[in-house]
Write a structure and sequence with these properties.
Blueprint (H helix, E strand, L loop, with lengths): L1 E5 L6 E6 L3 E6 L3 E6 L5 E6 L2 E6 L3 E6 L3 E7 L3 E6 L3 E6 L3 E6 L2 E6 L3 E15 L3 E14 L3 E6 L3 E6 L3 E15 L3 E8 L3 E3 L3 E8 L3 E5 L3 E5 L6 E7 L4 E4 L5 E3 L3 E6 L4 E7 L3 E5 L21 H39 L37 H12 L5 H12 L1
Helix pairs in contact: 1-2, 2-3
């Protein structure tokens, strides 16, 4: 089923609450189009330049290309493409994919996070899965649970901590890869701070923009650019295996520590490895280190989203059953009261108008007699209970309890 909302402006702020996976695409029309399975619910409301969208199942959502996107929580995976406004996502329980966007601020991603072609800065606090970045202006990520792939970043790139390995290529600004549980392999990257990894470090044609250290639990291999000649290399090898074959030098040292100067030696670089350390000349520009990433930018529904949808369907069925049962009980109460009163009591469910006082019968109702020591509800008390029930002040169960208490 398609839900369409025509807008008064082409750059709204779209607020989304989603209980399933959502695919959002920017279009050159001032409207919001939501395509969702027919039995499912979707609400679209515009107010003062803001559009509020709530969906209880997976859907496709088209919004104006200039829209800003605000998402507090996505219960499934989220795919956003062709949006030039700011994107703010507090939490996504599944995967998050951004393609051809401007800037984005993301809190937590429960699955993988992939971004391609971003003209502005991308900031994300935490990614439980893997991080994939391709052709963006700048990227900053606090923590990644899995692997990282970073390619073609024009500005700065920062990943503070990752549990897996990292592949990086073509970072023009300063790159900071602080701590990785796996290995780091980088080509044509400008390093701005020290790097610590649990595995190996392999750098090809990278630039050292400051004094820094490379610390690896495995091996360290560096292929130096020919024009980077102002270095002091402090080499430490846990395997007593140090090799230097760069800038005209050809050395092999079987010792744990060695210091080597290239040119004037103004910039100090520490290479420390649990295994071997090698420094060679860079082979120059080479083939793409990373390869095809198309499979990382497709929408994939999360298993969690499917589980949430099953729970929503079950809760909906239970709620419908409870409403039906309440209607039956209410009808029974009405019948009992009508029999005892001798006239019909209309609770107003067929007519949504105001409460009307029941008509007075032609013959006066005989007074209610009570056995000695027993209590009972008068007609006025019964009507009062029914009025409270209709006004929503008490529930059906509470009304039944009151009736039973008065009859005891």
């Amino acid at each position: 089923m398609a839900h369409i909302l025509n807008l008064s402006k082409d750059d709204p702020v779209v607020h989304l609450k989603a209980y399933g996976g959502v695919q959002i695409k920017g279009i050159d029309q001032p409207e919001v189009l939501c395509e969702i399975d027919a039995p499912q619910l979707a609400t679209l409301v515009e107010e003062n330049g803001h559009v509020y969208v709530t969906v209880n199942s997976s859907c496709h959502l088209n919004v104006p290309v200039k829209s800003a996107i605000e998402i507090e929580r996505g219960m499934g995976s989220l795919y956003i493409e062709n949006i030039t406004g700011a994107i703010n996502v507090e939490k996504v329980l599944g995967n998050l994919v951004l393609i051809n966007v401007a800037q984005a601020v993301v809190g937590k991603v429960g699955g993988n996070f992939s971004v391609r072609k971003a003209s502005g800065r991308i900031q994300v606090d935490k990614v439980a899965g893997s991080l994939t970045v391709d052709d963006v202006q700048a990227i900053e990520c606090g923590k990644v649970g899995g692997n990282c792939i970073v390619r073609n970043v024009q500005g700065d790139c920062r990943v503070d901590k990752a549990g897996g390995k990292c592949l990086a290529q073509g970072v023009t600004g300063l790159a900071v890869f602080s701590k990785f549980g796996g290995s780091l392999k980088a080509r044509e990257v400008t390093l701005g701070e020290s790097v610590k990894v649990g595995g190996n470090i392999e750098l090809i044609g990278c630039i050292f923009a400051a004094d820094l250290g490379l610390y690896a639990g495995g091996n360290v291999a560096v292929a130096l650019l020919k024009d980077q000649e102002d270095l002091t290399l402090k080499l430490r090898s846990g395997g007593d295996n140090i090799k230097i074959k760069a800038h005209g030098d050809d050395l092999e040292i079987h010792d744990g520590e060695y210091e080597h100067q290239i040119g004037e030696g103004g910039r100090v670089i520490t290479l420390a490895a649990g295994g071997s350390v090698s420094v060679v000349d860079s082979p120059g520009p080479g083939e793409d280190l990373i390869g095809d990433l198309s499979d990382r930018f497709t929408f994939e529904e999360s298993a969690f989203s499917e589980m949430v949808q099953d729970r929503i369907d079950t809760a909906t069925r239970r709620a419908e059953a409870k409403v039906k049962a309440a209607e039956i009980r209410l009808g029974q109460i009405q019948e009992r009261v009508e029999k005892r009163r001798g006239f019909k009591v209309d609770l107003g469910f067929g007519d949504q108008g105001a409460w009307e006082k029941p008509p007075v019968p032609e013959q006066p109702v005989p007074p209610v007699t009570r056995p000695a020591g027993k209590k009972g509800a008068t007609d006025e008390e019964r009507l009062m209970i029914l009025k409270m029930l209709q006004d929503g002040k008490i529930t059906v169960d509470e009304a039944e309890t009151l009736f039973k208490a008065m009859e005891s």
